[in-house]
Specification:
Blueprint (H helix, E strand, L loop, with lengths): L1 H29 L1
Length: 31
């Protein structure tokens, strides 16, 4: 169970990082 939670947290963190990268790219293109 703990292992599954860790994997889930990893997934969420990687998704957040990807989302931030996308937002940064959009801001860069706009300016």
């Amino acid at each position: 169970m703990e292992n599954r939670d860790a994997k889930l947290t990893e997934k969420i963190l990687s998704l957040k990082k990807r989302g931030n990268a996308v937002i940064l790219a959009h801001n860069y293109v706009r300016s």
